[in-house]
Design a protein that fits this description.
about 850 residues; about 95% helix; flat; thick filament; Myosin_tail; myosin; motor protein; muscle protein
Length: about 850
């Protein structure tokens, strides 16, 4: 019943559309031929509407019957809707499908009855359209055959996909095998890469050290140049101060000379006036003389007075002339003194020129040193470029190594098997360790047994001492009985007692020594066992710490490699900056050199000007003023150079700070870039896989959609054909449609299953990759632990052998002590036997003495009788 839901709905929609378009109101044959239609397609509806419009004229007589059928169909459609809801709820269960199919068959029987009733009424109209339906059926059969072909293609595609899945699994196995093989190669390549990196790092560190030394030398030379420049500046300032002082003195002297010259001119003018006055006076005198000669006779006395006056005036004038001559001589002396000072200034100027020449020679030496340093810098830049090329090559090799390592990561199953073997070996080692502990426990038991034997020996010794005491008491009684033989036997008994005492002391000493040795050995064994236990625990802790340290060291080594690469980049950039700054300083140095050459030429001009200044004072003053201006330019240039130097130093410090910041940022950026690159590679791989998967799914979906559309079109055409086809065609089509629906459901189910399988496979592949990574890490850790345990086992074995050798030595000592005790017991038994013999002899001698005395007594009595 659920399969009739969508056709009934489509028929209702088509009827409504026809009623709106002016066609008949109800047409009931549209839904009988396609019970499997699930989606109403607008294109198919338009085609159906066209066909219905063509058949409208022939089927108007059947409207009343169709109205009745429509009412029944509406009821059935309601039932179909409820049944489809139930079917959608129970979709996926075969029992519900069977029940639905049964219900659908019952409904189909009802519909078939309705169709039979309607077919009797519509046979005439159907006969006219039978040919068209037959043609459509042929088309439909062709389409069904095409669908079958496509279904077979889908089956072949599914089989091919299964075959590809099998091939992929085989390829995964092969890749895992290749991964195992590549891991070893990756380890070798990693070791080789580490060696190459170490060598390159050492070479680069040496080169960096050389560059640093060269930079330090350059800095030292720079400081020396700065110091020399500062000294030259100080000398120039001193010379300038001396020169300014000399200029001020010269100016003062010049002013004095001008004043003296003015005074001299005034004096000369006064002298000229005085001479003129004198000449006038002489003329007047001559006139007056002539007059006076004429009147001499008249005015002799007046003439004498006037002569005296004139003589006085002449003396005054002569005194004034002498004073003026003295002043002129003083001026000449001042002039000669000024000339001597000018000569001293010239000598100082020559000295300054000599210092300038020395400074020029030093400048040339510095230029040569700068040229050498430039050549060295060029060599270092070439070496740096070569190292950069080698670094790029090594980075390319590292990329290859990374690819090889990624391939080698796939070899971890063999390593897992080896890990299992190592775990078995570890289990065996643990068992051996348990055996060793058991042996140690047995040795402890053996030591306890030996201690018990020693205690038993001590008890036996005490018993021997008691027996000895009894023997001594018996000996004392025998001595009391053998008073007659005391003199003879006392010495022997003394010797025997001394021997017994010495033997007893020796035995006691040996027993004490054995007890002490055993106690010491037991204490040493216990202390050694506790020490070894603590030592092994400490070594285990240390080994675990060393493993952690090694892991951290490995991570730190990778970080240091990255840092060194960053440092190399930073050093390269700093080297380029230093090179640019050096070029700028060289350019500034060339400018300063040109200025110095110009200044040297100007100094030569000043020298020539000073030579001419001896002859022409004013020209010399002008030259001195020009030289002073040039010296001021030099001082300003020197100040500019110092300012440039300070600026360069500040720029260098800022560049260093920027360099540090950029190195930090570059390190962080490299880390982020590496992480992002790895994530991007993973994301790209996953995206590529998902794209391929989605493309496949889209292609399959499009193909299925095309199949569904074709089926819908065919079903819609079959609906039109079902109006004229009859019972057999409808039954065949219904069965065929059901088969197609089942096949489509099966294919959709298979498609979903394949999608779920593909997702599971993708998840499985990712999980396997993660497991492989974890197994690789676990394998490395297990390998390290196995190596540590093997070392510990070797240590334990060695210590066990040492303990066994110690126990063997102790056992040998105990056995030796036992032999000595047995020998001592034998000697004691021999002494006791000898003592018994002596006692027996003594008794026999005593008894013989008594018998002899009784015989003598009897003989004497006989004689008396």
């Amino acid at each position: 019943m659920s399969l009739y839901r969508s056709p009934s709905a489509s028929v209702m929609r088509s009827a409504s559309m026809l009623s709106r378009s002016g066609g008949f109101d109800a047409f009931g044959f549209g839904g009988y031929g396609a019970p499997s239609l699930n989606v109403a397609d607008l294109g198919s509806l338009t085609r159906l509407e066209d066909k219905i419009r063509l058949l409208q004229d022939d089927l108007e007589t059947e409207r009343e019957l169709r109205n009745r059928i429509e009412r029944e169909r509406a009821d059935l459609s309601c039932q179909l809707i409820s049944l489809t809801d139930r079917l959608e709820e129970a979709e996926g269960t075969t029992d519900a499908q069977i029940d639905a199919n049964r219900k659908r068959e019952s409904e189909l029987q009802k519909l078939r009855k309705i169709l039979e009733d309607s077919q009797l009424e519509s046979e005439d109209s159907l006969n006219q359209l039978r040919k068209k339906h037959q043609e459509s059926l042929l088309d439909y059969q062709q389409q069904i055959e095409q669908l079958q072909k496509k279904n077979s293609k889908i089956d072949r595609e599914r089989q091919r996909l299964q075959h590809e899945v099998i091939e992929l699994t085989a390829g995964i196995d092969q890749m895992q095998k290749d991964k195992h093989a590549a891991e070893k190669a990756a380890e070798k390549h990693e070791a080789h890469a580490r060696e190459l990196q170490n060598r390159e790092n050492n070479d680069l560190m040496k080169e960096l050290h050389d560059v640093k030394v060269q930079m330090e030398n350059i800095q030292h030379v720079k400081t020396q140049l700065a110091q020399q420049l500062e000294e030259a500046r100080r000398r120039l300032e001193d010379a300038e101060r001396e020169r300014s002082q000399m200029q001020t003195q010269l100016h003062q002297m010049q002013l004095e000379l001008d004043s003296i010259q003015g005074a001299l001119e005034e004096e000369s003018s006064a002298r000229a006036e005085a001479e003129h006055k004198l000449s006038l006076a002489n003329t007047e005198i001559s006139q007056w003389k002539s007059k006076f000669d004429a009147e001499v006779s008249l005015h002799q006395e007046e003439v004498d007075d006037l002569r005296k006056k004139m003589i006085q005036k002449q003396a005054e004038y002569e005194e004034q002339i002498e004073i003026m001559l003295q002043k002129i001589s003083q001026l000449e002396k001042a002039k000669s003194r000024l000339q001597s000072e000018v000569e001293v200034l010239i000598v100082d100027l020559e000295k300054a020129q000599s210092t300038i020449a020395i400074l020029e020679r030093q400048k040339e030496q510095l230029e040569r040193m700068v040229a050498e340093m430039k050549t060295r810098l060029d060599e270092v830049t070439q070496e740096l470029e070569a190292t950069q090329r080698e670094l790029r090559a090594t980075q390319a090799e590292l990329q290859k190594m990374k690819h090889l390592y990624e391939k080698a990561v796939e070899q971890k199953e063999a390593l897992a098997r080896e890990n299992k073997k190592l775990q078995d070996d570890l289990h065996e080692a643990k068992e051996a360790l348990a055996d060793a502990n058991r042996k140690l426990h047995e040795l402890d038991l053996e030591n306890a047994r030996l201690a018990g034997e020693i205690r038993e020996l001590q008890i036996a010794l005490k018993e021997a001492e008691a027996a000895r005491r009894d023997a001594e008491s018996r000996a004392q009684r025998a001595v009391a009985e053998l008073q007659a033989l005391r003199v003879e036997m006392e010495r022997r008994l003394q010797e025997k007692e001394e021997e017994m005492e010495a033997l007893r002391k020796n035995m006691q000493f040996e027993i004490d020594r054995l007890a002490a040795a055993l106690a010491d050995a037991e204490a040493r064994m216990k202390a050694e066992i506790s020490r070894l236990k603590k030592k092994y625990q400490a070594e285990i802790a240390e080994l675990e710490m060393t493993i952690d340290n090694l892991n951290r060291a490995n991570l730190e080594a990778q970080k240091t490699i990255k840092k060194q690469a960053d440092q190399l980049r930073a050093l390269q950039s700093s080297f380029e900056d230093c090179q640019r700054q050096l070029q700028q300083t060289l350019d500034q140095y060339a400018i300063a050199q040109r200025k110095l050459s110009a200044l040297s030429a100007e100094l030569e001009d000043c020298k020539s000007a000073l030579d001419t200044a001896i002859r022409v004072r004013k020209q010399a003053e002008a030259d001195l003023e020009e030289a002073q201006g040039k010296i001021a330019d030099l001082v300003s240039l020197n100040n500019n150079l110092t300012a440039i130097k300070g600026k360069l130093e500040t720029d260098l410090s800022t560049c260093q700070a920027d360099l540090d910041e950029t190195t930090k940022e570059l390190r962080a950026a490299d880390d982020r870039a590496n992480r992002a690159q790895q994530d991007a590679v993973r994301a790209m791989e996953q995206l590529h896989e998902e794209q391929e998967h989605s493309m496949k799914i889209d292609a399959m979906r499009k193909a299925l959609e095309e199949h569904v559309k074709q089926l819908q079109v065919q079903i819609q055409e079959a609906e039109a054909a079902a109006l004229l086809g009859g019972k057999r065609v409808i039954a065949k089509l219904e069965t065929r449609i059901r088969d197609l629906e089942m096949a489509l459901d099966e294919e959709s189910r298979r498609h979903k299953e394949t999608q779920t399988c593909l997702r599971k496979k993708d998840r499985r592949v990712k999980e396997m990759q993660m497991q492989v990574d974890e197994e690789h890490k676990n394998f490395v850790m297990a390998q390290d632990t196995a190596e540590r345990l093997a070392e510990k086992l070797n240590i334990y074995k060695r210590q066990l052998t040492e303990a066994e050798s110690l126990t063997m030595q102790n056992l040998q000592r105990v056995r030796r002590y036992q032999h000595e005790l047995e020998d001592a017991e034998g000697r004691a038994e021999q002494a006791e036997s000898s003592l018994h013999l002596i006692r027996a002899k003594h008794r026999s001698s005593v008894s013989m003495g008594k018998s002899l005395s009784s015989k003598v007594y009897v003989m004497e009595e006989g004689h008396e009788y």
